[in-house]
Amino acid sequence: MKLSIFDTYEHLSRFSAEQILETIKSNPRCTLCLATGDSPKLTYQLLVKALIDQKTNVGAVHFVALDEWMGVPPSNPGSCHYFLHENVFAPLQIKSQNVHLFDAFAKDLFKECRKMDEAITRLGGIDLMLVGVGMNGHVGFNEPGASETLYAHIADLDSTTQQVGQKYFSQQTALVKGMTLGLAQFFEAKKVLMLANGKKKSAIIKNALEGNISMLIPASMIRKHKNSQVLIDQEAASELTSTTKS
Q: Is 227 a catalytic residue?
């Protein structure tokens, strides 16, 4: 694991966008796994602008969603589907056959998870996975105490996730379960970028990077990944020791 600390969220996002851009340019048929939420939003805006400005062909790139809220329709602005469509797929005019999203209303949820696993296998695996860090240390919806050997699965959402998740919705929304790629896919991804910004993430970043490596803090598993980089701003890094920062 490599740790990079940036003076601002904007600089963090620009570096992250450049990493994804380089992946696309080096492998125009790559598979990207994208998280949603506040942390990666500017990364996607900068990436889209760069791809359009540089007239980069993304016609053969495949996009995989990291997770989705169960019971939230894709038309809801709080859904992961809506977020990725608005911030990435629509502005880049990505073909529907190159987009792989969880169907939160699938009749057979087990089959829906296997469908996602099979799609990733068929594509040759994930070339770059971008994830955030939940307030409880979750990665995707791999909540504290989950198994690190799971592939795509249905997760019971931790109370912290249920509470924090309300910020994405205009009205109170029942958030009980989620569909998510598992930590097995996280470890198998050829490269992982983990993003966190803001003072509110400083405590969990300290736990993840300086505490025990444990599924009680899923984000700590980044330290076991063979090719990973943690990208944080100064505020998120504020509780780290000087040893870690160096």
A: no
Instruction: Check if 210 is active-site.
Output: no
Residues 191-223 pLDDT 10s = 999 999 999 999 999 999 999 999 999 999 999
Active-site option among 136, 142, 197, 207? 136
Q: How far apart, in whole angstroms, are the C-alpha atoms of residue 143 and residue 141?
A: 6
Cα gap 162→198, rounded to integer Å: 20
Do the domain assignments include residue 246? no
106: CATH: 3.40.50.1360
Q: Which of 68, 112, 127, 143 is catalytic?
A: 143
Domain contains 99? yes
Catalytic residue among 68, 81, 87, 138: 138
% residues pLDDT > 90 (the chain) = 98
Residue 20, token pair as written in the block: 């994804």
pTM for the full model? Answer: 0.96
The yes-or-no answer on residue 117 being catalytic is: no
Q: Which domain holds residue 217?
A: 2-239
Look up residue 2 and give its amino acid: K
User: What mean pLDDT, rounded, does the chain reach?
Assistant: 97
Structural domain count of the chain: 1
Alpha helices in the chain (DSSP H): 9-26, 41-53, 80-84, 90-92, 109-122, 159-164, 183-188, 202-210, 242-245
| Catalytic (active site) residue 138 | yes
Alpha helices in 88-131 (DSSP H): 90-92, 109-122
Q: Is residue 86 part of a domain?
A: yes
DSSP 37: S
